[in-house]
Design goal:
675 residues, alpha/beta, Rossmann fold, ten-stranded mixed sheet, eight-stranded antiparallel sheet, 21% strand, globular
């Protein structure tokens, strides 16, 4: 788990409501508010059209990556803290101007990571109309990422990343407990950094200018360009580091600060890594115990999901599990599931409620001897080509800047390079084996020991006070990536803080449609209202994991009729990782569990399907076409069926009213079924 984007944000993607089901509306513990001066009166820049004129002045153009926004490029100093250095670079900001009376800017330090692009992943859909009416929504790609001069070493990263995922530990405990394993880990980190720097083609001395302190000053440069006296700032995940860094230097320029999934900036890199390991373990255990309380999940995992997980983890740590993976061509390839793949997949499924449910389904399948569902999750989260196992890369995320920013910002111990390495190895020994679960974050320190801009001394930061700035800390007790305790600590140091958190919950809690916390943020931004209580607990239902959906039966004989079969296929498609995590921007094909292929993609109506001898179940293969009409809410399969029986069937599911039907011929009999 030491690889890749540990402090990332996972955005829930899905066509149907079930795919992003975090439950219904909730009732806040309290909805009392105290009125302060209205937002539009606080703002000293309420003149309508201010942002639009600025966009024109800077030759703004529609953002190619995100057409809802207008992109502008500004020149900023390479080093904001040295006026004698006249070198500059370009940073791109994306703006959606207020649709009505303008109150000011609402700037989003949105990307997770560090390494996530802000512009390509930004959006308007999770904001209520009142915010879009009165605020200019602003996203940006921070320096070194995306449109702001991407720094990348994809070849070096892919080699190192795949070496980690596919590596196996055949000696001692799982982890770097043997001297040769420790030396190999050190050598791998050194090799990656050397190859990455060579591939970047940048003067290594300049990497220190890509840390979070410079990013915060880029925001200040944009504020000055716009001319607003004050603005509102939102940070999520790693973005809370950007937002806190800005607030520490420019509190007088903030009308409000919202930190969602909050990082405790007073922690060193090693302290943060160890806290994160504990948080992932805490969330995993809670999810496994929640399975035991769900009758459907308990039935498939024997009522003791934690024991099932530990048994499989111990098994894989000794011997990787061999399995066959179905390809779209109809062929099957032999693969092995390693312990590193196991922990990586587990960790990334812990970010969201629905992701946790998908993990439990894959765990249940693995317990039955089927590793394919877990492999599908691995491919999606690790961004691997299912056919080749190659790393495809995430076009919205800079793996390079994940290391560069982390290693520039934070210290992993102090002393000489050798001393820091020795301390990382020593600390890592506590994580050898299979418990604690989902460990390894501390080993990022090996890479930082070699990174050119890494500090040799311990980096110390004062707690954020933000005098005069109403500050909201949003977090969850089951946030694996930015532990709850960190947000609690930040709140305790604020001069004017409000702590809104979920019992349970996920990584970041704003914008999922829950009244708590969304209404508190809306009321503050639009009406200038602050809660009457300093701490508010949001009650979500579900709060740990989405409702469990049982695995599809393995044989057609388990179903009474074709309607039951198609209903099961309909549901199973929804929970295929390739489908669930898709953005539906292009056609995607995956191999069906028992042979054949299924292709889905965008259409003018919504989604289109085609399938060839696709068997989600033994004895029932379908060939044909279908789709989902987003306007009517109707899904359709038109299929030739082969297997235990043959026939021609049309299946429809009206998601709007919850009805479904099958008509046609099957096994020589006329079929007309509905429910």
């Amino acid at each position: 788990m030491q690889k890749k984007k540990l402090l990332t944000i996972v955005v829930c993607i899905g066509t149907f409501v079930m795919a992003c089901n975090f439950g219904g509306l909730l009732t806040p513990k309290t909805n009392e508010v105290s009125t302060i001066v209205p937002t539009k009166e606080i703002s000293a820049q309420s003149n309508e059209g201010n942002m639009i004129s600025m966009l024109d002045r800077l030759d703004g153009e529609t953002c190619e990556e995100n057409p809802d926004f207008t992109c502008v490029t500004i020149q900023v100093p390479l080093d904001h803290f040295d006026t004698t250095n006249t070198e500059t670079l370009e940073v791109v900001f994306a703006v959606a101007p207020a649709s009505g009376e303008r109150y000011g800017m609402y700037v989003q330090a949105f990307p997770g990571g560090p390494g996530g692009e802000g512009i390509s992943t930004g959006g308007l859909s999770w904001y209520p109309d009142e915010i879009l009416e009165h605020f200019d929504l602003v996203y940006f790609d921070q320096r070194g990422i995306g449109l702001s001069g991407a720094l990348e070493c994809p070849m070096a990263y892919a080699r190192d990343y795949l070496n980690y995922l596919n590596g196996t530990d055949q000696g001692g405990l799982e982890g770097f407990d043997l001297p040769e394993e420790q030396q190999n880990a050190i050598d791998d980190a050194r090799t990656f950094v050397e190859e990455c720097i060579a591939e970047l083609g940048i003067d290594p001395a300049k990497l220190r200018f890509y840390g979070t302190d410079q990013v915060a000053e880029d925001i200040e440069s944009f504020r000055q360009e716009v001319g607003d006296e004050k603005f509102w700032l939102y940070g999520v995940s790693y973005g809370t580091a950007v937002a806190q860094t800005y607030a520490a230097s420019h509190a007088d320029r903030l009308a409000g600060l919202i930190l969602d999934g909050t990082i405790d900036m007073t922690m060193t890199g090693d302290e943060g890594a160890l806290a994160q390991e504990k948080a992932f373990d805490k969330v995993l255990v809670a999810v496994l115990k929640a399975c035991d309380e769900d009758p459907a999940c308990a039935a498939e995992l024997g009522g003791d999901a934690l024991s099932v997980y530990d048994k499989l983890a111990a098994q894989i740590s000794k011997t990787p599990i061999a399995y066959e993976f179905p390809l779209p061509s109809g062929e099957k390839v032999k693969r092995t599931f390693t312990f590193n793949q196991w922990e990586f997949t587990t960790a990334y499924q812990m970010y969201s409620l629905a992701g946790r449910m998908l993990f439990l389904r894959a765990l249940a399948a693995a317990n039955q001897g089927d590793m394919v569902p877990m492999a599908r999750l691995l491919h999606e989260q690790a961004v691997l080509d299912p056919a080749t196992g190659d790393y495809l890369g995430d076009p919205t995320f800079s793996d390079t800047m994940f290391y560069s920013v982390n290693c520039t910002d934070d210290s992993y111990y102090s002393g000489t390079q050798e001393e820091r390495i020795a301390k990382v190895i020593e600390t890592g020994q506590a994580s050898n084996g299979t418990v604690p679960r989902v460990d390894g974050s501390i080993y990022t320190g090996l890479y930082c020991a070699f990174w050119p801009s890494a500090p040799a001394d311990v980096v110390e930061r004062e707690p954020l006070v933000a005098e005069g700035v109403p500050t909201f800390i949003l977090n969850a007790t089951l946030d694996p990536a930015t532990p709850f305790e960190g947000g609690e600590t930040v709140f305790g140091n604020l001069a004017d803080g409000y702590h809104i958190y979920v019992e349970g919950g996920l990584h970041s809690i704003y914008g999922y449609g829950w009244e708590c916390p969304d209404d508190y943020i809306k009321n503050f931004l639009v009406n200038g209202e602050l809660p009457s209580e300093r701490e508010i607990v949001c009650q979500w239902d579900p709060s740990i994991t989405s409702e469990y959906h049982p695995l599809m039966s393995k044989d057609v004989s388990a179903y009474a009729d074709p309607l039951e079969i198609f209903s099961a296929i309909d549901s199973e498609l929804l929970f295929q990782p390739e489908y669930y995590y898709s953005y539906f921007t292009e056609d995607t094909t995956f191999g069906c569990p028992y042979g054949g292929s299924f292709t889905f993609g965008p259409s003018d109506a919504g989604e289109s399907y085609s399938f060839t001898e696709c068997a989600f179940i033994n004895g029932f293969a379908i060939t044909g076409t279908g789709g989902y009409d987003s306007n009517s809410g109707i899904l359709t399969f038109e299929a030739q069926v082969s297997g235990k029986k043959s026939g021609t069937l049309i299946y429809t599911h009206d998601y709007a009213n919850g009805t479904s039907s099958v008509t046609g011929e099957y096994g020589g009999e006329a079929i007309e079924l509905s429910q």
